């Protein structure tokens, strides 16, 4: 069953000026798909289109179920502590799970934030703020994760812990769309790839399919650069 369906004819930020064109893909349950491309390729515009944040868009996106967005730049309430953010999530989501706060404490321990539990995120490092975003997203139990550059600021252990958690979420049935520049990691964890450049999708499929399309047997990075050379 598809959790996300995207069909965008064109979309952008100014009327009559498209940033992305002819974007079409879907995500199924249990699937992790990597959205790959250089700065300015249109990846963030795709995410905003999916989230309904673009006024200039012709097309349609469908999300079946609850979704969670983990932004590249963490956002939080400056007047709330880490734990107060957790409490707010429970109140807003009306989650009646008796284990909600137990799960929250487990995630706080996994990401080693126990000492910062009652501190304000404005005093956190970028990595700590990112961990808070991840914890909030996971507690929401979404059917779809939309993740924008999740590894920036995270230490190696946190990256490993995050990837293990995402694998558990996939087994639960969640679908994950991950925008990342870390191609070696993406190659190891993603089921399929969407390669972007200059506002258009230049290739999509599994690594094997991408290799055939790029006419190379190399890594995901090798394939991507081969497409970039063609697109110049």
Q: Could you characterize what this model shows?
A:
The protein has 232 residues and is of the alpha/beta class. It has two domains: 2-66 and 142-231, P-loop containing nucleotide triphosphate hydrolases (Rossmann fold), CATH 3.40.50; 79-141. It has helices at 43-50, 82-93, 100-110, 126-139, 156-172, 183-189, 207-214, 220-231; strands at 2-12, 20-28, 32-36, 56-63, 67-70, 144-148, 175-179, 192-197, 200-205. The strands form two sheets. Strands 5-6-7-3-8-9 form a six-stranded mixed β-sheet, with helices on both faces. It has a three-stranded antiparallel β-sheet with strand order 2-1-4, with helices on one face. α2 runs parallel beside α4. The N and C termini lie far apart (37 Å).
> Proportion of β residues?
25-35%
Characterize the overall form.
globular
Q: How many structurally independent domains?
A: 2
> What is the CATH class of the largest domain?
Alpha Beta
Radius of gyration: 18 Å
The strand line-up of the biggest sheet is: 5-6-7-3-8-9
């Amino acid at each position: 069953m598809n959790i996300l369906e995207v069909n965008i004819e064109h979309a952008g930020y100014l009327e009559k000026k498209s940033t992305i064109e002819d974007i079409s893909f879907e995500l199924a349950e249990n699937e992790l798909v990597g959205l790959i491309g250089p700065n300015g390729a249109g990846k963030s515009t795709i995410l905003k289109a999916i989230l309904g944040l673009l006024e200039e868009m012709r097309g349609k996106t469908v999300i079946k179920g609850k979704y969670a967005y983990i932004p590249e730049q963490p956002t939080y309430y400056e007047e709330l502590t880490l734990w107060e953010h957790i409490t707010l999530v429970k109140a807003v989501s009306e989650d009646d799970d008796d284990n909600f706060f137990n799960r929250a404490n487990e995630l706080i321990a996994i990401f080693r934030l126990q000492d910062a539990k009652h501190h304000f995120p404005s005093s956190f490092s970028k990595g700590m703020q990112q961990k808070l975003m991840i914890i909030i997203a996971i507690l929401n139990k979404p059917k779809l994760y939309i993740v924008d550059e999740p590894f920036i600021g995270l230490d190696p252990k946190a990256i490993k812990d995050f990837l293990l958690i995402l694998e558990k979420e996939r087994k639960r049935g969640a679908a994950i769309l991950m925008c990342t520049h870390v191609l070696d990691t993406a190659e190891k964890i993603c089921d399929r790839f969407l390669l972007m450049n200059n506002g258009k999708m230049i290739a999509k499929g599994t690594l094997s399919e991408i290799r055939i399309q790029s006419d190379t047997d190399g890594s995901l990075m090798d394939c991507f650069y081969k497409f970039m050379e063609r697109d110049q």
